[in-house]
Amino acid sequence: MSRINFGAADFSAEDYVYGLCDIPDITLADIQAQQERLKRHTETNSLALRANVNKNYANFIETAKETSNILLCRGHLGACMRVRSFHLCGLALVIRCTLPFPHPVLICCCAFRSPPAVLP
Predict the structure, then answer these.
(1) Quick one: pLDDT at residue 6?
(2) Strand, coil or helix: what is 23?
(3) pLDDT of residue 95
(4) CB of 96 within 8 A of CB of 102?
(5) Residues 6+ apart with CB under 8 A from 113
(6) Contact criterion met (CB below 8 Å) for 107 and 85
(7) CA 105 to CA 92: how far, in whole Å?
(8) Which of 13, 67, 82, 74 is nearest to 41 (CA)?
(9) What does the pLDDT read at residue 10?
(10) How far apart are CA 77 and CA 90, in angstroms?
(11) Residues of the chain under the 70 pLDDT cut
(12) Which residue, 106, 86, 85, 105, is CA-closest to 95?
């Protein structure tokens, strides 16, 4: 028997079975051999599919963990940046108070932030 590609886009199970039955000198042993071949092929594909699903699921879980960690890091970095900005604005206010003239960079630094409480 010729090799059949069961995964081909144009494969038809019905045409395969009818074609098998139309062979004039086919024996019961030939049909049983084809049935066994199909069974092995099905089991092989099933195992491969299961392994592929498990691998993809493991990759999905790993990617979800990485994404979660990245988002957590982004949150921590944002908080850190807010604290640093707060400290820089406070420092800018201290420096601005000690300078005899307003420095444009320091004024620009704190233009969009509410100033921290002034210490006595």
Answers:
(1) 73
(2) coil
(3) 67
(4) yes
(5) 85, 86, 89
(6) no
(7) 9
(8) 13
(9) 82
(10) 20
(11) 1-2, 93-120
(12) 106
* Amino acid at site 48: A
The pair of structure tokens assigned to 7 is 């995964």
Alpha-carbon span 98 to 96, nearest angstrom? 5
Predicted local confidence at residue 99, as pLDDT: 60
Amino acid type, 95: I
Rounded Cα–Cα distance for residues 37 and 119 (Å): 86
- Locate 71 and state its tokens: 């988002």
Spatial CB neighbours of 4, under 8 Å, sequence gap ≥ 6: 11, 16
**What's the pLDDT at 96?**
63
Which of 75, 103, 79 has the alpha carbon at shortest distance from 91?
103
Rounded to the nearest angstrom, the gap between the alpha carbon of residue 73 and the centroid of all alpha carbons in its chain is 18
How confident is the model at residue 100, as a pLDDT?
59
Write the burial class of residue 16 (CB in 10 Å: 0-12 exposed, 13-18 middle, 19+ buried): middle
Nearest of 115, 120, 29 to residue 107 by alpha carbon: 115
d(CA 67, CA 53): 21
